[in-house]
Write a structure and sequence with these properties.
- This protein has about 650 residues and is mainly beta.
- About 0% of the residues lie in helices and about 45% in strands.
- The chain is built from no helices and 57 strands.
- The radius of gyration is 27 Å and the shape is globular.
């Protein structure tokens, strides 16, 4: 950010009562007026905040300014942000600005060393509470809290399960599908298990049908999970089978085979309702028929014909197109690292290239609709950008898929290979960790670093306050108040990411919401169909131009959740009284539950866990305080390590 710390002290005796105005013009480098420039005046703690927009002639007029010390900010899309300091003692009639094109590169900052080296089988998922869960083989996981920039060790599972296909379920649990029961490479497994980040408990689930090392996974609109490919028992032989797994029942069914056995492919649920899997060749799965069909091949077709990992990542754009970023050439021509897929035309087209061409870069779709492209293997030998000894870079670029423009940003502190995990968090930063060493091997250590993008260095951010609920039904409306802006330019939802290798197995959604404004209150309306908005977790941002608020994570569902996960679910091993409950509820356990350890949780009607505890060596009945719970219907779930027992109660 260019900060012009210009101190202006101006006094006019003719101004009465200490109420002044500040006027001026904003032009570009060609001296043409810039329309709709955001002009802000604020004091040090923003208790005074005034926002103004320039007219068609580039003029602004800030009125009713009291004398005092202020900062004046000038922000226009695509232009350099300017700030100046003012001491106002009178009106200012001609405070003009010329804005050059934006050159702000953002900042990468080292945060902390990771508790675990991440470089072979790792994954990262943005949890409903805003923390990122990382693990390598499920034995030594940890969380990173962006709010404190610190790590938290959490319980691991006794059984190794690396190289999995992970999915964040609508109930907030993370499900781990397949992989290998060895530290690194090995035969595929049929194992499925879940991790509950609230109770910190792992739970085995019924197996899937096929043995799969690094399967491709995608959550479907009905919350079932499409599972395809992966290395089988004779890994590296890849299977071409696929199945659909239902986490609510633990059952799986065979569906159509894919064209060629593969593993851990880039994959997105398109807005057409079909699933696009691009490694290899591009294929479409139709949940209505359970059939796979070949999609149009890449312009640069027959990618990775040797069957190795994919060379690209896949981003689903708000307009419904998908963009593949990354290309590995097997000829002297480095090729083009951008291709767009249009699902309505079933066709690929080349996008604007940017040197150096790279394969296996990391990508993040940002709140400003641009894509951050980070690290990657340099495919263009003649380019002067340096690499580490393994050919990987530390560069960061910003790509605008709508204008086709690229811009080089601040470099990462470490070159990172494709096992790196990059995650957008609610405060708007990008968190990166892993991949610091040789591809496919754990590095000596891993370092968490954070990217502050240019959009966080462009003045005062809007603030979301008094959000009506964080648990919302599809098709419903919700309210919040906004401050530090007169009105948002957009209200958006970005789905929580879940990344491993080249696959983001989250919902892959960027949704612009329809909204209205009355005073400071915003009323936004959610899409009503499960293809546009699948169940799950999203970051809510209020945007002013390309500047996001600090986000709020909300949970979306289409109907009351089936609270039970797993096959073994019963309602006959405990009873409750009084029901309806007041300040407490008694739980009478039958003999088969009066031994060992119990995990007890209470969920509201939307499936949110509102109370959870773990009890050891339970031998008697229980009393649970419920005085803090709002009136409503709740579900008590008791887990004894093998079975899940549930009962509903009413809180008066």
């Amino acid at each position: 950010m260019k900060n012009f710390f210009l101190l202006l002290v101006i006094f006019y005796a003719s101004d009465l009562y200490g109420q002044y105005s500040i006027k001026g013009k904003v032009k570009d480098s060609a001296q043409l007026p810039i329309i709709n420039t955001r002009v802000t005046l604020f004091n040090s703690d923003t208790t005074v905040f005034i926002e103004n927009r320039t007219t068609a002639t580039g003029k602004y007029n800030i009125k009713d300014v009291a004398s005092g010390n202020y900062t004046l900010g000038i922000e226009a899309l695509g232009k350099e942000y300017i700030e100046i300091s003012l001491i106002v003692t009178g009106s200012i009639s001609a405070l003009n600005f010329t804005l050059a094109n934006e050159t702000q590169k953002g900042n990468w900052d080292v945060i902390i060393q990771s508790p675990e080296a991440l470089g072979g089988t790792n994954l990262g998922v943005l949890l409903p509470d805003g923390k990122i869960f990382y693990c390598h083989n499920t034995k030594d996981p940890f969380k990173f809290d962006p709010a404190t920039n610190d790590t938290i060790l959490v319980n691991g599972d006794d059984k190794i399960q690396g190289c999995v296909g992970p999915v964040l379920l609508p109930d907030g649990n993370v499900i781990f599908i397949g992989g290998a029961d060895q530290d690194f490479y090995g035969p595929g497994t049929r194992l499925v298990k879940t991790y509950d980040p609230v109770s910190n408990i792992w739970q085995d689930q019924p197996n899937m049908l096929e043995y799969r090392w690094y399967p491709t996974v995608a959550k479907l609109p009905d919350n079932k999970i499409l599972i395809a490919g992966g290395g089988g028992l004779n890994n590296p032989v890849r299977t071409n089978t696929s199945e659909i797994y239902d986490p609510a029942t633990g059952t799986s069914q065979w569906v159509d085979n894919i064209a060629i056995g593969n593993e851990v492919s880039p994959v997105v649920l398109l807005y057409t309702g079909k699933v696009l899997m691009t490694h290899r060749p591009p294929q479409l799965f139709d949940p209505a028929t359970n059939q796979w069909n070949l999609a149009d091949d890449f312009v640069q077709g027959n990618r990775m014909a040797n069957g190795d990992h994919a060379d690209h990542e896949l981003v689903l754009l708000p307009d419904g197109r998908a963009v593949a970023i990354g290309f590995k050439s097997f000829t002297s021509d480095p090729g083009n690292m951008v291709e767009f897929y249009d699902p309505l035309k079933n066709s690929w087209s080349l996008g604007n290239n940017f040197s150096p061409v790279r394969s296996r870069a990391k990508t993040v779709l940002a709140p400003n609709k641009k894509i951050f492209v980070m690290a990657g293997y340099k495919e263009e030998a003649s380019d002067p950008i340096p690499t580490n000894q393994y050919g990987y870079m530390n560069i960061t670029d910003q790509y605008d898929p709508y204008s086709g423009t690229w811009r080089r940003l601040d470099a990462m502190n470490y070159s990172r290979e494709y096992h790196a995990i990059t995650t957008l968090v609610p405060d708007g930063r990008i968190i990166a960790v892993g991949g610091e060493g040789e591809p496919g091997n754990e590095p000596t250590f891993s370092v968490i670093e954070a990217f502050t993008p240019p959009y966080l260095l462009r003045g005062v951010r809007p603030v979301i306050k008094n959000l009506s609920s964080t648990n919302l039904l599809r098709g419903s409306s919700f309210n919040f108040k906004v401050s530090r802006t007169k009105t948002p330019t957009s209200v958006i939802l970005l789905s929580n990411a879940l990344n491993t290798h080249f696959m983001n197995s989250g919902n892959n959604r960027y949704l612009d919401l329809a909204f209205t404004k009355s005073g400071s209150q915003i009323t936004a309306t959610l899409p009503s169909d499960s293809v546009t908005m699948p169940d799950g977790y999203y970051i809510l941002f209020a945007m002013v131009d390309d500047i996001p608020s600090v986000g709020k994570i909300i949970r979306i569902e289409g109907k009351t959740l089936n609270f039970i996960t797993g096959l073994n679910a019963f309602t006959s091993s405990f009873s409750m009284f009084p029901n309806p409950a007041g300040d407490f509820i008694n739980i009478s356990l039958k003999s088969d539950l009066r031994s060992g350890n119990l995990k007890i949780s209470i969920q509201n009607e939307l499936g949110k866990v509102v109370k959870a505890t773990i009890l050891e060596n339970v031998t008697s009945n229980l009393t649970i305080l419920t005085s803090e719970l709002p009136t409503g219907i709740y579900l008590i779930k008791i887990l004894d390590g093998k079975n899940i027992y549930t009962e509903k109660f009413i809180k008066n």
